[in-house]
Amino acid sequence: xxxxxxxxxxxxxxxxxxxxxxxxxxxxxxxxxxxxxxxxxxxxxxxxxxxxxxxxxxxxxxxxxxxxxxxxxxxxxxxxxxxxxxxxxxxxxxxxxxxxxxxxxxxxxxxxxxxxxxxxxxxxxxxxxxxxxxxxxxxxxxxxxxxxxxxxxxxxxxxxxxxxxxxxxxxxxxxxxxxxxxxxxxxxxxxxxxxxxxxxxxxxxxxxxxxxxxxxxxxxxxxxxxxxxxxxxxxxxxxxxxxxxxxxxxxxxxxxxxxxxxxxxxxxxxxxxxxxxxxxxxxxxxxxxxxxxxxxxxxxxxxxxxxxxxxxxxx
Length: 315
Hints:
TIM Barrel; 8-stranded mixed β-sheet; 10 helices; 8 strands; globular; disordered N terminus
C-alpha cells in the first residue's frame, strides 16, 4: 500500500519536470490517504478509556472519541518530534491527520481564556518552522492559529503587524517544508469580523500561500451561515480560496454566546464536501472554552465529560 501511494506522487513528477515547483507541490492529501485519522489519544477517547465504570464513557467514546478530531499543538519543547510522531501514526494507517498550530505570542489576547504562546517572534518562527518540518512530505491538513485574525480589538498597530508577519512566515514555511499539506489560515466566524475586513487580514497574512481558510473554529454558527460568510469573504478577496467549516459543535446553531453555552449539539461528522472543501471537527467536543458558561470551573482546553454529554444530547 505504501509504495503504491508514494508511486502516485513520484511517477507524475517524472513527466512534469518543466512545471514550476509550486505547482508540483499541489498533490492532494485526500487522494494520498484513505479517510481521516481517528486519534485514539484524543481527550474524549482517553477519558472514556480511563473511566470504563462511568455510565457516560461508552456513549462519549461512540459519539465523540471514535470520530476524527483535530489535534491541537501548543508550546512543546520538541514540536518537530511531537508532530512527526503524530503524523507518522496517521501515515502508518494510511489516514489523513488534521492538526492545529496554536502558539502565537499573545495568543487569545482579547478573550483571555486561552492565553499563552511563544515568548517572542523569533521563538515562534523557530517553532512553526519545526512544526512544518515535522510533517515533511507526508499528507496532512493544518489549521494555523485559530482566532489570530479576529482578535485585533485590544492590540496596537505594531502588535497587529507582527502577528500578520508571523502568519505569513508560517504559510511560507509550510510551502517550503510540507509540500503535501493543505494549510488553512483561520478566518473567524460570521458573528465576529465583517467579510471585507477579514479578507484584507487574510490577504495580509499570506492566504495566497495556503490552501485557503477556516471558519467557525470553536464556535457554534450553523454550517449554512458559515458557508455564506466564507463566500462573502471570497468575494471580497477577489478570488475563490478554498474553505473549511468547523462543525464540531454547531448542530443547534448559536445562541449568541461563545463560551460553553448551554443547549448546543454535535454537528455534522467530518467529511469532504458539504458546500465547503471539508467539514471538520477542529474544536474537540467536550473540551472547555474556559471557566465560563455551563463549565465555570473547567479551564480552557480541559475535557469535561458533562460538556460532552450535553453536546451529545443537545441540552
